[in-house]
Design a protein that fits this description.
mainly alpha; 13 helices; 271 residues; globular
């Protein structure tokens, strides 16, 4: 004997009247707001990202008259240090920040909710972009006041859009480190990753001075691709042909690493 359950008008009405959960966009916005407020409540975390690239600009670029007095060279220096500010903010905020979050009791609760990892990860990328823009303000002011750097409004908007795009692989790299390692290990790993990437990408030294073997390695890094694309947006100097492809390839690889690290950490800590 079999029984068949049919939905009655009453049960259908009850199901229809049940409130729907928040959508993905609203969840992403809530995570973005929460992460932003959580960061700004520790002022030194924000000030560190603002001050270090600005001091580097003030002490190493401004005194060099050959660079500071040349509009193209000065704008290129501002672009390079701007990208370094983005790399530093992304790797330290997420490489170290995510690792520290994982030690808090609130983190497993958030990850056990049915929303899934996408809203939280997208919000982290958005939060990284916001603080990357904050880090550009003192650099831009110093370049404007003390050097001949200057761009038209259209190129400035193109530069802002470009730096938001090129920040994505560094946010993903920071998240991969943060989910893969504990906080004590994440800090030295981030330091080991940041400075070689910055040097190899031409952020401290113009890549035109690199020997051929180092220039070839440099072109395969996300920092060099991001630097050349940013300089192209601001000055019109063309980037090397494979820059967009290199950047897109790193985004795919690092996104896969971040998702894999997230899932492995989730499987280790709770099911």
């Amino acid at each position: 004997m079999s029984t068949t359950t049919r939905a009655t008008p009453a049960t259908s009405a009850a199901g229809a009247g049940r409130p729907a959960g928040p959508g993905t966009l609203r969840l992403t916005w809530l995570h973005l707001r929460y992460q932003f407020l959580e960061t700004v409540r520790v002022p030194i975390a924000v000030l560190g990202n603002l001050l270090f690239p600005a001091l580097a600009m003030f002490f190493f670029v401004v005194p060099q008259e050959a660079v500071a007095g040349d509009p193209v060279a000065a704008t290129t220096a501002v672009a390079s240090l701007s990208l370094f500010a983005v790399c530093s903010a992304s790797l330290f905020t997420y490489g170290l920040g995510v690792a520290e979050d994982r030690q808090l009791p609130f983190d497993p609760f958030l990850r056990s909710l049915p929303a899934g990892p996408a809203p939280r990860m997208v919000a982290r990328i958005g939060n990284g972009a916001v603080f990357a823009l904050f880090g550009l303000v003192p650099l831009t002011v110093i370049g404007w006041l003390f050097t001949e750097a200057g761009v038209a409004a259209v190129r400035l908007l193109a530069g802002v859009g470009t730096i938001l795009l090129v920040s994505v692989p560094f946010v993903l790299l920071g998240m991969a480190v943060g989910y893969a390692l504990p906080a004590k290990a994440a800090l030295p790993v981030v330091q080991v990753i940041l400075f070689p990437l910055a040097f190899a990408g031409g952020l401290f030294m113009p890549p035109q001075l690199f020997p051929a073997w180092l220039d070839g390695i440099s072109m395969a890094t996300p920092t060099r691709a991001g630097r050349d694309l940013l300089v192209q947006a601001l000055t019109g100097q063309p980037a090397y042909g494979a820059a967009w492809a290199v950047l897109a390839g790193w985004v795919v690889v690092l996104a896969a690493l971040a998702v894999t690290a997230y899932r492995r950490d989730e499987g280790r800590r709770f099911r």
